[in-house]
Amino acid sequence: MRPLLLYAPNLKMYETDFLDSRKGWKSISVTGTYCAFNCKHCGRRVLESMIDGSAQDKIEKEVMEAVNRGDEGIILSGGSTLRGDVPIWKYSNLLKRYSDKLTIIAHTGVVKNEEIAMKFKESGVKIALLDMISDNDAIRDILGQPFTVNDYLNSFKYLKKVGIKIVPHIILGLSKKGLEGDLESIRLLQEVNPDALIIVGLMPLVGTQMNNSRPPTPEEMIVALKTARDTFPNIPINLGCARPRGKSFLEVEKFAVDYDIDAIAFPEDETYEYAKGKREIFLSYACCGNVVFDIFKVITS
Q1: What's the CA dihedral at 215, 199, 40, 49 to 10 degrees?
Q2: φ, ψ for residue 125 (rounded to 5)?
Q3: 143: which residues sit within 8 A by CB, 6+ positions away?
Q4: Which residue, 3, 1, 60, 9, is CA-closest to 290?
Q5: What is the mean pLDDT of residues 147-156?
Q6: pLDDT band (50, 70, 90) for residue 206
Q7: Residue 211: band (very low, low, confident or very high) from pLDDT cuts 50, 70, 90
Q8: How far is 21 from 286, CA to CA, in rounded Å?
Q9: On the CB side of 26, how many CA atoms lie within 13 Å of its CA?
Q10: What are φ and ψ of residue 236, in 5° steps?
Q11: Angle between helices 269-276 and 250-258 (to 10 degrees)
Q12: What is d(CA 195, CA 106) in angstroms, rounded to the nearest whole number?
């Protein structure tokens, strides 16, 4: 079986005998809590949990502290501009000074052309993260955005063309077409040849318009992981950090272990014990999107 990578970035409190997220890569919002859109499933709440990097002095402090701590990378995120992209590039001069010391992983938002993609490249971004949505109705009615499925697909194409690794996220439970819409997102990504793929699940957040929405079931998450692995047998497939939790979802993690899923973020203790006798385990404090680099280190070590 493939090696199994277990991740614990500094996105939430997570402490086990084998991983502690206080040592993990930090997540910084370059816009603070601002976003041009007010997605019904997020409502800007996700930005509240990130470190505020909305000014030059703030982000420089965080980057320097990451270097001084010996962190290997950072996660840059933030709200979208009206054009769709997360304006990480506005700190390009600062970030590229540190790009040889830190792996910069970025949530890019929608990238409308190659020129914007190049701005991310010039900022030292090595890995780009962006949700893949297969449903124009969901983009309009849930995300509140004037974009299309093709805009999302083209974003990956532009980013890949300039030499950035692309790691799409599939949010199960977001499509208005149900599970079939989510699975269609996986299939559509065959057009862009992703470098890795991350499966996550809708987590209804208090204070958002989708607070009472139904999260994906364990069975649906298993189907999505199986579809992703079968569709993309030659790239890393991850069970990402944002997903429903609870005793019933332990079966999702065990399935991931048994079906050669490459990485799990914030695994349960039981999953770690379950995997020890089945696969060679490697631990990391990076964002799990860094699997595109980690997997080769592991294979060649």
Answers
A1: 100
A2: -70, 125
A3: 37, 39, 40, 133
A4: 9
A5: 98
A6: low
A7: confident
A8: 9
A9: 19
A10: -65, 135
A11: 20
A12: 15
Beta bridge partners of 283: 6
The residue behind tokens 């990451």 is 66
SS (H, E, C) the chain: CCCEEEECCECCCCECCCCEHHHCCEEEECCCCCCCCCCCCCCCHHHHCCEECCCHHHHHHHHHHHHHHCCCEEEEECCCCCCCECCHHHHHHHHHHHCCCCEEEEECECCCCHHHHHHHHHCCEEEEEEECCCCHHHHHHCCCCCCCHHHHHHHHHHHHHCCCEEEEEEEECCCCCCHHHHHHHHHHHHHCCCCCEEEEECCCCCCCCCCCCCCCCHHHHHHHHHHHHHHCCCCCEEECCCCCCCHHHHHHHHHHHHCCCCEEECCCHHHHHHHHCCCCEEEECCCHHHHHHHHHHHHHC
HSE at residue 199, side-chain half, CA atoms within 13 A, is 31
Report yes or no: 126 and 169 within 8 Å, Cβ to Cβ: no
Give residue 54's identity as a one-letter amino acid code.
Answer: S
Residues in the chain: 301
**Token pair belonging to 20:** 């502690």
- Among all chains, which residue has been given the structure tokens 């057009």? 191
What pLDDT score was predicted for residue 40?
79
The maximal CA–CA distance of the chain, rounded, in angstroms, is: 49
3 state SS for 19-70: CEHHHCCEEEECCCCCCCCCCCCCCCHHHHCCEECCCHHHHHHHHHHHHHHC
Q: Name the residue with tokens 């194409």.
A: 157
Report pLDDT for 297: 84
* Short-list 218, 220, 202, CA closest to 210: 202
Task: Tell me the mean pLDDT in the region 51-74.
Answer: 96
**Residue type at 271?**
T
Is 90 exceeded by the pLDDT of residue 248? yes
- Chain CA centroid to CA 35, Å: 18
